[in-house]
Amino acid sequence: MTDWGTASPRRGEVELRPVPQMSVGDWQRFHRYFKDREIAKLNGASPIFLPLWLFKRIVFGEEKSGERIGYAIYVAQSFIGSVEFYNLNEPPRQAVLGILIGEKTLWGKGYGTVAVKLALELIFETRKFERVTLQTLDHNARARSSFERAGFQLTGFADAGKQRFAHYQITRTQWLALNKT
């Protein structure tokens, strides 16, 4: 099992907490986000139809395998989404980032960008990973802008069926250069 500790990095109102620390109510809200059609569409996916107990089992199973590590995003102590790294085992020292802000009233307020920056700090400083990649729908301008503000650079586009994805990456070296103190 990947253990990234119990640290809860914080910047302003935004705090990341390891997924296992989520309350029952947070899990119910998290499950509801993944069932939402609008949110799923922005992720290039379909809404889930799993019961809550199975959803939790899958998330914990992925964490236990070491393939994924996730953090719950809190704003002013209220759960609003998650940021995660997955595909941690291949290639070495590289990860794929995913983020979901489920509270639609908080979209466009910068919380996702702050959460991504905190997550990058964890993976680059604490775990010494060398590269983080991600993909988002080409037309999701809000997400693309957020990733660019966090330091990601566009590496290209790819079509998958009827959808076009923008691919991004940031290396540890790039991140360190952007975050010199």
What does it look like?
This protein is of the alpha+beta class and 181 residues long. 35% of the residues lie in helices and 31% in strands. An 8-stranded mixed β-sheet has the order 1-2-3-4-5-6-8-7, sandwiched between helices. It is globular. The model has no long low-confidence stretch (mean pLDDT 91).
Name the descriptors.
8 strands; 8-stranded mixed β-sheet; alpha+beta; 6 helices; 181 residues; single chain
How would you describe the oligomerization state of the chains in this entry? single chain
Shape by Cα distribution: globular
Order of strands, widest sheet: 1-2-3-4-5-6-8-7
Number of strands: 8
Mean pLDDT level: 91
Number of helices: 6
| Strand/helix succession | EEHHHEEEHEHEEH
The low-confidence runs, each spanning 5 or more residues with pLDDT under 50, are none
Measured between the Cα atoms of the first and last residue, the distance is 33 Å
- Main sheet properties: 8 strands, mixed
* Gyration radius, in Å: 16 Å
* Backbone structural class: alpha+beta
Strand content: 25-35%
Query: How much helix is in the residues?
Result: 25-40%
What is shown here, in short?
The protein is an alpha+beta fold. It has helices spanning 24-35, 37-42, 52-65, 111-126, 141-149, 172-178; strands at 10-11, 14-18, 68-75, 78-86, 94-101, 131-137, 153-160, 163-171. The chain has an eight-stranded mixed sheet, with helices on both faces.
Question: What's the helix and strand layout?
Answer:
Blueprint lengths: L9 E2 L2 E5 L5 H12 L1 H6 L9 H14 L2 E8 L2 E9 L7 E8 L9 H16 L4 E7 L3 H9 L3 E8 L2 E9 H7 L3
Parallel strand pairs: 5-6
Antiparallel strand pairs: 1-2, 2-3, 3-4, 4-5, 6-8, 7-8
